[in-house]
Amino acid sequence: MHIELxxxxxxxxxxxxxxxxxxxxxxxxxxxxxDVLQPKKNAKGNRKFTPQDIKHLELIYxxxxxxGFTLEGAKIHLKENKQKTLDRFEIIRxxxxxxxxxxxxxxxx
Length: 109
Fold this sequence. Notes:
Layout: E1 11-12, H1 13-20, H2 24-33, E2 40-41, E3 47-49, H3 51-66, H4 71-108
């Protein structure tokens, strides 16, 4: 899954949920379940997600929705292999973007 968000310092929970095509309640649930998600909250209590939070959400989404991990399995996987998982995830995303570009080139030929 490729997430389309404009470059900003902070994203609202609505923007994040729309980008991931999930409900805001799922984002709030993952925030409670995964320690790596620490969005900032303003005086009203509205969550503001940083680009780093978005990367963590992408990884959680990948593990839970795309690879079929249970929540407990994803938590354990993140705790035990966090850096290794992040590195692999970045490589996968780069390869996916390269694939999209190659498909565009192929279609133009």
